[in-house]
Structure prediction request, 166 residues.
Amino acid sequence: MSAAPAEPKAEPGRIARIRTEVAQFLVAGGLAYAVDVAVFNLCLYLGLDAVVSKVISSVPATIVAYVGNRYWTYRHRERTGVTREYTMFFVFSAIAAGIQASCVFVSNNLLGYTSTLADNISGNIVGMALGTLFRFWAFRTFVFKHKQSEASATTEPAMSNAGGTS
Prediction:
């Protein structure tokens, strides 16, 4: 009887790279988050609607996030053209901002919570958590692509061991 083939294990180097990438993404995002919360609360203070405030606050926050992610988190990733990269970054950021604004909309209009505290919880905690998960997946998958040599290097060892030779 032969044992079932072992599941391929992730390389320690790959895990370390992903861990570093997540940490850098969260730091860059944290700075953008601070901008988002500050502008959001300024808009609320000025008397703007909560959903409109969330949409407005996402614009400067997205610019801060782009700079942090392009020039720090994903600096090692292939550049696929500034126009393409910037456009995709903002499209995915707009979708994530829509996720956040939707959370404020649901809180205000469906659940009836209209206080500043409720707006901050729905937009800056619940919405930000959901939007952050979406952003991380979209940015690393579609916006800041792996260099071809780096992507193929992670698949070569698995293929060379498939034939049973070292």
Summary: Confidence is low (pLDDT under 50) at residues 150-166. Residues 12-45 form the longest helix (34 residues). Helices lie at 12-45, 50-73, 82-110, 116-143, 148-162. The chain has five helices and no strands.
